[in-house]
Amino acid sequence: MAKISELLAKLEMDELMEAVQQELDNGTDPLEILKEGEAGMIKVGELFSAGEYFVSDLMMSGEMFKEVGEMLEP
């Protein structure tokens, strides 16, 4: 499931949504998926701090994380 955090950190939107759906289909606890998303967001923050990502990347990752959260709603 670490794939979710990696995809979020790499800003791979389509692949991320597919991975989240696959985890849901496999019966993975939504809270575990959310924790993986949070790990990806931490990585995005680290990349921003290192000067590798810009504000637009932060905004995109936030939107991706929001969409993951919407997928996990009951």
Which key features would you list for this structure?
single chain, 74 residues, mainly alpha, Methyltransferase, Methionine Synthase (B12-binding Domains), Chain A, domain 1, 4 helices, elongated
Description:
- With 74 residues, the protein is mostly helical.
- It has one domain (2-72): Orthogonal Bundle (Methyltransferase, Methionine Synthase (B12-binding Domains), Chain A, domain 1).
- Helices cover 80% and strands 0% of the residues.
- The chain contains four helices and no strands.
- The chain has helices at residues 2-9, 13-25, 30-49, 55-72.
- Helix 1 (2-9) packs parallel to helix 3 (30-49), helix 2 packs parallel to helix 4 and helix 3 packs antiparallel against helix 4 (55-72).
- The protein is elongated, with a radius of gyration of 12 Å.
- It starts with a helix and ends with a helix.
- CATH C-level label: Mainly Alpha
CATH superfamily: Methionine synthase domain
Would you give the CATH topology? Methyltransferase, Methionine Synthase (B12-binding Domains), Chain A, domain 1
Total count of helical runs of at least 4 residues: 4
Helix/strand-derived category reads mainly alpha
Helix amount: over 70%
What does the radius of gyration come to? 12 Å
- The shape is elongated
Q: What does the largest sheet look like?
A: none
Give a quick summary of the entry.
The protein is mostly helical and 74 residues long. The protein has four helices and no strands.
Give the SSE layout.
Elements: H1 2-9, H2 13-25, H3 30-49, H4 55-72
Helix pairs in contact: 1-2, 1-3, 2-4, 3-4
